[in-house]
Amino acid sequence: MENCAAAELFDGTSAIRHPVTLQWQDGGLAIARAEGAVEAIPAAALTFNEHRGDRLVYGHRERAGWRLLVPADAAPALLARLPQGGQYGGWIDRFGLVRASVVLAVISAAAVAAVMTAPSWLGPRIPEAWERQIGSALVGDLDKFACSTPESDAALAALVRDVDPGQTPVTVQLGKIDMVNAVALPGGRVLIFDKLVQEAKSPDELAGVLAHEVGHVRKRHVMQALLRQFGLSILLSGANSDIGGTLGGLAAMGYSRDAEREADEWSRMQLARSDISPAATAAFFGRLRKLDPTAGNKQLSYLNSHPDSGERQQAFAKAVQPGKTYRPALTAAQFAALKQACAKDKDAEEWSLGWGS
Amino acid sequence: MTEEQNDAQSDKAFEFHGTWQEYAPIAFTNLLLTLVTLGIYRFWATARTRRYLWSRTRFIDDRFEWAGTGMELFKGAVMVFFVIGLPLIAFNFLIQRLVLNGNAAAAGVLGVAFFILVYWLVGVARFRALRYRLARTYWRGIRGGSENPGMAYGVSYMWKNFVGTFALGLLIPWSMVSLWNERWKAMSFGPYKFDAEGRVEGLMGRFLLCYAAPFLALIGLFVVLLPILMATNFGGDAEEAGAGFGLGLAGVFLAYFIFGLIVLAYYAKFFRQMVEATSLHTLNFGFTASTKDWLKLFLGDAALILFTLGIGVIFLTYRHWAFGVRHLHAFGYVEVDHLTQSTTPELREGEGLLDAFDMGAI
């Protein structure tokens, strides 16, 4: 009798409760109904569903809704033969809670470390050609906004030579955009906005700002920012798959403060290499500080705000070496050519958000 | 054959048998495993919690069973990531590119289309979550479900909520009632379809009170704080400024509290009325939680979280489930020999959509 037990069966076709008697016999469970019918269920077809306190509930792999309710105090010999239940889920049950938790915590920590550090070690290793392709896919065609005259192109090229010793070319363009700004875009592109040129008091500050943006390109900050945001969104999707939040994170993509400082350092180094004084750039940040610090275009991720202008002003001012003879970054004629480029180039379109006229 | 009568007077049809001591090991191990897996375990945690809550809930003479698994919830979420998440991210990049190229108008149109799409998906997700939960709930070996995939409900959700905002939001009760009815009428348990005939009558009074909340707060502020103001008026300038600030703060707090209370009063009535208007074949339902009960529930939640320094959060699902079952009633009878298996699709996809929009809580 140690293999027998009284139980209840719902057969999954109707809600009728069938009192049954169970008996274990060679590899299966014989279920005898009160009216006499006996059915043998192979052990492999049985599943453990749950422990309900006073009863154990078993199911059938092929029959949805088939439920066998066995009293928890039924013959232990019978219960031992029925499928046993897991608690936390397959893998964790096999390892045990404590061991599984430790292993999972180590794996998670490694994953976090990989994702957090990936931008800095993986970013520079991504071929620049790939970045250019990603860049053109993300950014699209900006050529129609570029102001170009033979003289301004030559002046721009001279400026780029001064601030960029790199091998592969950085595409620098003057954009017909009515904002005091310059941006480094994915794919090794730098865009100087016309308003910045118009407001520039000397070519030296243009060199300083351009060098900063080229610094972003050469230090692979663009790729790093993309990777950081992508990695973070993947990581966060584990803890919270709120798509809205992920999109918000991507939209807010920008360079880290460290990246900004690194680009500034690059800028000062290039200015020093080319004997251009950083004083004008310092003065530029001084003027910028007097403007509303939050002014600027926040709706575009690539145009994110920079570190404190005052701090940057000081850093550039300190880089001025007393006694050193500096040369102007551009001749007066070259500087004038840049200032007139957008007025002379009739083909260039004025960039605007495109609302109305 | 057997006809099981439910005597509503002597015995409550729904009863919760769980204890927090019994649930605590589940809650704490869920928390631990969710932390060490960076949240991925939460699908399995949800399944374990539901299995416990369902299995400790009696209806008439048998317990419910939650048959859903963590794996199917996980698969649902992964599917949603690829089918909806990645395209949405790409869509977002496209909008940025358009703005960058000076096509803000096109970006705006796309943005609006994007918003409409997401709104529609939220509606579909709400429908499918209910459908999934019914399809994975067994009672005496019989489950529920729906034949309807919920796409049309998404459209209703969109336009009814939109119309609801007309006339300063006066049509919101109508849209809520109408969506409840539409959702439940599409659901079934066993061979029987749910019916829902909720009506707006009786809800407007409390809803209109929401509009009066700011004025009520102002009056309350006057009555309570005027004497304090007069008393502090004799102090110095700095004290006066401090008192003014405190007064402003108290006013804002009071306004929020009164508004929240009125919304709660409306919702309590809405929920009672809707559950009472919902039926399943020979069964009618009732819900007895008053505004005071809901308030006690939420104040209890807040106290629990506060006094456990946040850990108590893991017991909220338990508390809310127990609250729901305690106040849920059923009247009528069930003919168990006629209650045959549901023919609706068996669902194995989980609540991916609902989870994606971060509204998975019961």
How would you describe what is shown here?
- The complex is a heterodimer of chains A (357) and B (362).
- Chain A has 357 residues and is α+β, with helices and mostly antiparallel strands.
- Chain A folds into 3 domains: 4-85, Pleckstrin-homology domain (PH domain)/Phosphotyrosine-binding domain (PTB) (PH-domain like, Roll), CATH 2.30.29.30; 92-121; 128-344, no CATH class.
- Chain A has helices spanning 76-81, 90-95, 97-122, 128-139, 150-163, 194-199, 203-218, 221-239, 243-251, 257-273, 279-290, 309-318, 332-344, and strands at 4-10, 18-25, 28-33, 38-42, 46-51, 55-60, 67-71, 171-175, 182-185, 189-193.
- Chain A has a 7-stranded antiparallel sheet with strand order 4-3-2-1-7-6-5, with no helix packed on it. In chain A, strands 8-10-9 form a 3-stranded mixed sheet.
- In chain A, β9 and β10 (189-193) form a beta hairpin.
- Chain B has 362 residues and is an alpha+beta fold.
- Chain B has one domain (6-356).
- In chain B, 63% of the residues lie in helices and 12% in strands.
- Chain B has 12 helices and 11 strands.
- In chain B, a hairpin with a 2-residue loop joins β7 and β8.
- The longest helix of chain B has 40 residues, at 237-276.
- Chain B starts with a strand and ends in a 6-residue tail after the last helix.
- The model of chain B is unreliable at 5-10 and 358-362 (pLDDT under 50).
